[in-house]
Design a protein that fits this description.
The structure is a single chain. By secondary structure, the protein is α/β, with parallel strands linked by helices. It has two domains: about 180 residues, Rossmann fold; about 180 residues, Glycogen Phosphorylase B (Rossmann fold, 3-Layer(aba) Sandwich), CATH 3.40.50. About 45% of the residues lie in helices and about 15% in strands. It has a six-stranded parallel sheet with strand order 3-2-1-4-5-6. The longest helix has 18 residues.
Length: about 375
């Protein structure tokens, strides 16, 4: 098949990470032509583009991230599809809107797919009507977890196939670990400090302020923990709220192109989000054998089993986050190792190879409309 993946941007994010890994895995089969269309400008910090397999054809329209840019991009996206003439067009995030015209008219003739990377209502935003229209016109939706599929049925009134996200995590080698070991040590305020790493962009959805407050309140009472926020930290409101706590054990690290080298040396992944789809970061922590502390939202409540491969908060409130952190702090080395082994064992169904195989099978024999 000739496959065109469409994503608005290649900034650091779970969905973007997934698209790059999926394109890489599809091209490695040696049986398909794969192109990736990025609509917006690629920025210097967009390290994901450098991780794209050379066999994947990268097409970038260099459009600004604005309403005007989106309107200007729509005919350009159509032109790319007409020029490339793919058998399959697979869109992600806002890519479904940008490809709306060819999706509606099915010109050139192709099968169109869209992966719902979040709760269906959150994913749709104020464009629920548009996505209903496109799904009725023959765009094939794909959901990423049982919870994602349940929200899809509530939003659209019919079922969509579930293909759980895959993860192409490469276990960092000794040299990669050593290169960041000193920085990791600098974040541990004491030799025995529990190090928790939140890998996510600053966003209300990711609930960083509640995490910071919960951790700071424990530190004020003498708890030995450090919480590191790693990811795009441009949201000034969240950054200021964390800094205003004046807690020396809260660290804002910003973007890193090699987050797995840091995660592999942390005690826990801290992912207390308000809502999620199926986070790639969580799958990466499974691959590394690092247990996660999470909230029971999205696909996380299907993957993380409390006391078996991680710890699950009662809800998304600051009080529940604090209680979960307290539980993490009292675990001894053996108990943490047991949770880590449980996390590693849970990774098996989420390899990118298995995920790509399921997508290719669906694309070969798409569901009837």
């Amino acid at each position: 098949m000739k496959i065109l993946e469409i994503v608005p941007r290649l900034h650091c994010g779970g969905a973007e990470r997934f698209v790059v890994d999926l394109a890489n895995e599809m091209i490695r089969t040696g049986e398909h032509e794969v192109a990736l269309l990025c609509v917006n400008r690629i920025l210097p910090e967009d390290f994901l583009v450098r991780q794209l397999d050379p066999g994947v054809k990268l097409i970038c329209l260099e459009m600004p991230e604005s309403m005007a840019g989106a309107l200007l991009a729509m005919p350009l996206v159509w032109n790319v599809i007409c020029r490339e003439r793919p058998d399959v067009v697979h869109t992600h995030l806002g890519g479904i809107q940008l490809a709306a015209l060819p999706e509606w008219f099915h010109r050139p003739r192709a099968e169109y797919f869209y992966t719902v990377h979040n709760d269906a209502f959150v994913d749709a935003g104020n464009r629920l009507w548009l996505k209903r229209w496109l799904f009725r016109s023959g765009v094939h939706p794909v959901t990423i977890s049982p919870e994602s599929e349940r929200s899809f049925v509530a939003a659209y009134g019919f079922h969509a196939p579930i293909i759980e996200n895959g993860c192409g995590a490469k276990i960092p080698g000794a040299a990669e670990l050593a290169a960041v070991a000193e920085e990791v040590r600098s974040w541990r305020s004491t030799p025995t400090s529990r190090l928790l790493l939140n890998i996510a962009r600053f966003s209300p959805q990711k609930n960083q302020i509640a995490q910071a407050r919960a951790a700071a309140s424990l530190v004020a009472e003498g708890a030995d923990l450090d919480l590191v926020f790693m990811g795009n930290d441009r949201d000034e409101e969240i950054r200021s709220a964390i800094q205003s706590l004046n807690c020396p054990r809260l660290h804002i690290a910003g973007l890193r192109s090699n987050p797995l080298a840091y995660l592999a040396q942390a005690d826990f992944l801290s992912l207390f989000s308000e809502m999620e789809g199926l986070p790639i970061t969580l799958l990466e922590s499974f691959a590394l054998g690092v247990p996660a502390c999470v909230t029971p939202v999205g696909g996380m409540k299907d993957l993380v089993h409390d006391g078996i491969n991680g710890l699950v908060a009662a809800d998304t409130s600051e009080a529940s986050i604090r209680a979960t952190l307290e539980r993490a702090l009292v675990l001894d080395t053996a108990e943490r190792a047991r949770l880590g082994e449980g996390a590693r064992a849970a990774f098996a169904p989420y390899s990118m190879q298995r995920c790509a195989e399921r997508y290719l099978k669906l694309m070969t024999v798409p569901p009837s409309v």
